[in-house]
Amino acid sequence: MLSPFFGFFNRIGRVQFWLVMFVSILVIVVPAAITATKATLEASQAALLAEQAGVAVQPHAELTGMFAQFGIAMVIVFAVCFWMFLSSHLQRLHDLNHSGWWVLAVIAAPMGVQAVAGAMAGNILALAILLYLGFYPGTEGPNRFGDRRVGVMADASASTPPQGSYAAMKNAGEDGFARIPRGATRAT
């Protein structure tokens, strides 16, 4: 059930991908909005009290204290959301029959374009990648990463999983060579 959010070895479809994106945005935006609203209200209240008392107050002192208080929690939230981002993008790439290593390009390419051509170009590339992952249909049926249904291998009745799949790697021996059952022939 949590595989679309935290797993790395399955495939997810477009709906699950957008669900993970929605949840991760909520997980980031809601606590950040609550923290910012609470900090702003407390800063306004402190400034009003200081004005009534005739005391000069540093305008952003309360904001700094509030964000420092929630800083560790927000770092943890961002770390969890980044993990969800990596997981969902990697599984979506698997659904499109691409290697999970392409997730590095998904992260680095917009930043590189942003550094060279400016923020607008990097954002456009990031949006194009998001639209590709979010709307392009995945591979129909099983591919080298298994069946589209999360956690189900492509051909469960076969004695050996598809070559290159995670299950095939798990079945490989310590020396990296797949073990062929006695009596079976190797397909060439």
Number of domains: 2
Mean pLDDT score, rounded?
A: 75
Low-pLDDT stretches are 150-160
- Report the total helices: 7
Rg from alpha-carbon coordinates: 24 Å
Number of strands: 0
Large-scale geometry: elongated
- List the helices and strands in order: HHHHHHH
Distance between the termini: 37 Å
* Residues in β-strands, percent: under 5%
Class from secondary-structure proportions: mainly alpha
| Share in helix | 55-70%
For the biggest sheet, the summary is:
none
Q: What structural keywords apply?
A:
single chain; 188 residues; mainly alpha; 7 helices; 62% helix; elongated
Layout of helices and strands:
Layout: H1 3-6, H2 14-53, H3 61-69, H4 71-95, H5 102-117, H6 119-135, H7 166-171
Helix pairs in contact: 2-3, 2-4, 5-6
What would you note in describing this structure?
With 188 residues, this protein is mainly α. It folds into 2 domains: 136 residues, no CATH class; 36 residues, no CATH class. It is built from 7 helices and no strands. 15% of the residues are buried.
